[in-house]
Write a structure and sequence with these properties.
Largest sheet: 7 strands, mixed
Radius of gyration: 51 Å
Structural class: alpha/beta
Number of helices: 20
Number of strands: 28
Mean pLDDT: 87
Length: 695
């Protein structure tokens, strides 16, 4: 069980992490919501609503109008005049994003109360109609909508208002699902009763102050009210009723014929904004003076609101800009009319969660299975896939898909998987380093042992000499000289296929067989026969030996030799006339010999000649100029020697190739035989190899 847990430890940790991430999505704390809002805003910034001609015109209480009419609030007669100017052009409806909570201070009756006027002046003022009354009459004669606002604080003296729209519901009571305020703020009773509609301008609390969504219907003191935009559409369409459809979850649809608006369970729609258009605005002062095209308001929804900085009616939008609050309601009207509002379907939450889980699992799985550079491609591919899906659904279905959380889960799980992979690969790398270090020690020890197997031929260096320079710790090349009596010597130079310890072991076996048979003073053909068949029987898979075997007599000067698949043997006389003797047999250890007669030998006399044999590490070795030495190069080295001795030949060849390159291409092994001087030298002390037993 423990072994199983250790094997799948990373996946268990990932599973726990995944559960925590799922729980975080379900709980949806404020910082997660904020991240989601960023992705929603990104959609709109990338693809704002494109619309040239608007059904909404905004009469702007701007700086120019404040300069004309003075400090706000203005006299109600100003607004009455604006209504009269617009009404004659036959707009769909006129909405006020302005409150009229108190009586007009500039109205005649208010002036009489505020100032000590003489009777003559009182009579004069009494003959003038109240500004509130003038405004009320204008409201009554027009298709007007007055703003109301939800409040958590009671407004002293507020009357018991009711919405103008009548709500008809199907499937339940919408009140239990709508956002609620205990109180409401509005305008004077006589004004609201004269208006054709009351529209809520309440925005929901936003943590970052950006207005992204808006409730189509809200509840003030247990009474339902439509939002300003919906109420304008109802009044403009000459409808009395608003229809609310519900299911067990909440509100599904709100209608003002012929417009049907899908909403979330709380009656909320997400506003799709367009970029602000200056031609949608007209100054209130211009309307008051009648300086506008009569077609401007024809069949349009007219909103009256403030853009002046000092009136503090400015809000932030997902487009990253600040606009007058009245423009938000203008966007809502257009969204309703065009069905261009955005949808945040409740089922979307489930989709987002499942999609996040799938993406996270796939990414983590591949991060553990493939190389980091490929898993990085999976990560970026998944990232792009999430973004493409989110934007596609936004563009083609007007639905808001939260891409931030799938990307968040994707990133967390990918980094987690990458960390696990990093830790695991570090463990493997450390183990490999330890293994490599141990192997290096073993190879160094094997190399030292192998060196001890090479014969000490310093006594014979006047007539036969050889050297081995390994490319690695353990050489696959081999040479040997066996003195069987006072006049006869066996010698060999071999090259084992492959490199490293296995080649060294193969070489060691070949060496032991050759030395054993040579010491028995067998004929050369029988020695070669025995070495070949013993190596074939040893069954070193895929390995063989190219070799030159020889036997010479220092008295007669005759040398008998066998070339088994090896490099050509170089023979030259005192005039340095060169001859190259090629191999006539396959390498040793491949094919079994059935009789000694299969071994073909040659005999030559070396009283006036020199015999040189070398491995392919010599002919294929690199010179300082980067070129291979080759057989011609060996010949050039010999021609350049003033004194021809076996040691001088071998050392010169080795020096030419072992010139300080970082790494030899192959083992360098060379043997030279010259019988013009057969005197023995004094034996040298052989260095003892100490073998340490390491635990």
């Amino acid at each position: 069980m423990r072994a199983l847990l250790l094997k799948y430890k990373n996946y268990l940790i990932f599973f726990v992490l995944l559960i925590l991430l799922i729980a975080l999505k379900i709980l949806n704390p404020s910082f997660i919501k904020s991240i989601s809002f960023i992705s929603f805003d990104l959609y709109q910034k990338a693809f704002p609503l494109q619309k040239q001609d608007s059904e909404v015109v905004i009469i702007d209480i701007d700086e120019e109008s404040l300069g004309k009419f003075g400090q706000f609030p203005w006299s109600r007669s100003v607004f009455a005049n604006i209504i009269d100017q617009v009404k004659v052009t036959e707009p769909k409806a006129i909405g006020f994003d302005v409150f009229f909570t108190e009586k007009d201070k500039q109205s005649p009756e208010e002036i009489i109360k505020s100032y000590n006027l003489i009777p003559t002046d009182v009579v004069q003022f009494q003959n003038i109609k109240s500004h509130d009354e003038v405004f009320r009459e204008a409201l009554e004669k027009s298709k007007s909508v007055i703003a109301v606002l939800g409040s958590n604080v009671s407004s002293h003296g507020t009357y018991d208002r009711s919405a103008k729209a009548k709500f008809l519901s199907k499937g339940g009571d919408p009140k239990q699902f709508t956002y609620s305020f205990p109180y409401s703020i509005g305008s004077l009773e006589q004004l609201e009763k004269s208006a054709k509609g009351l529209g809520s301008i309440s925005f929901l609390d936003q943590t970052d102050g950006i207005i992204r969504s808006l409730p189509l219907i809200v509840r003030f003191n247990e009474k339902l009210y439509p939002t300003m935009g919906l109420e304008m559409v109802r009044v403009g369409g000459n409808q009395k009723n608003l229809y609310v459809e519900l299911n067990e979850v909440g509100i599904t649809r709100i209608s003002s014929r012929p417009h049907r608006i899908s909403s979330d369970p709380n009656g909320i729609i997400w506003i799709r904004y367009k970029k602000s258009q200056k031609n949608q605005y007209i100054s209130a002062s211009s309307v008051f003076d009648g300086k506008f095209d009569n077609k401007l308001f024809k069949d349009k929804y007219v909103l009256i609101g403030a853009s002046a900085q000092g009136l503090f009616d400015l809000v932030k939008t997902p487009l990253g800009v600040t606009i007058p609050g009245v423009e938000v309601h203008a966007n809502v009207i257009e969204n309703i009319l065009d069905q261009s509002y955005l949808i945040r379907n409740p089922n979307t939450y489930v989709f987002e969660l499942l999609f996040s889980i799938i993406v996270a699992c796939v990414t983590f799985f591949f991060s553990q299975r493939i190389k980091p550079k490929f898993s990085l491609s999976i990560f970026f591919g998944s990232f792009i896939l999430v973004v493409v899906i989110g934007f596609s659904i936004f563009l083609f279905r007007s639905e808001l898909i939260d891409i931030s959380y799938p990307i968040f889960m994707l990133t967390v799980t990918f980094l987690t998987g990458l960390y696990f992979r990093f830790v695991e690969e570090n463990k493997i790398a450390l183990a490999n380093l330890q293994k490599e270090a141990k192997l290096l020690k073993e190879r160094e020890l094997a190399g030292e042992v192998q060196k001890s197997l090479f014969p000490d031929i310093s006594r014979f260096e006047n007539f036969i000499y050889a050297t081995n320079v390994p490319a690695r710790d353990v050489s696959g090349d081999y040479f040997d000289v066996v003195n069987v009596n006072k006049t006869e010597y066996f010698f060999t130079l071999a090259d084992v296929s492959g490199k490293g310890i296995k080649a060294g072991m193969y070489m060691a076996k070949a060496s032991s067989i050759f030395r054993t048979l040579s010491n028995l003073s067998y004929p050369l053909e029988k020695v070669v026969f025995g070495v070949n068949n013993e190596l074939v029987a040893a069954k070193f898979k895929g390995m063989f030996v190219t070799a030159v075997f020889g036997k010479f007599n220092i008295d007669t000067g005759d040398v008998t030799f066998v070339n088994a698949g090896h490099e050509s043997i170089m023979v030259f006389d005192r005039n340095k006339k060169f001859d190259f003797i090629k191999s006539e047999l396959p390498p040793i250890g491949i094919v079994k010999y059935f009789t000694e007669t299969m071994v073909k030998s040659k005999t030559i006399n070396l009283k006036d000649k020199t015999f040189v044999v070398y491995t392919d590490g010599v002919t294929e070795g690199y010179l300082r100029n980067g070129e291979e030495l080759g057989a011609d190069g060996v010949q050039r080295i010999v021609n350049g020697l003033d004194t021809i001795t076996p040691k001088n030949i071998v050392d010169s060849i080795a020096k030419e190739l072992n010139w300080g390159a970082e790494k030899l291409r192959d083992d360098i092994t060379c043997l030279a035989l010259d019988l013009k001087n057969t005197e023995l030298t004094q034996p040298k002390k052989k260095k003892k190899v100490e073998i340490k037993n390491e635990k």
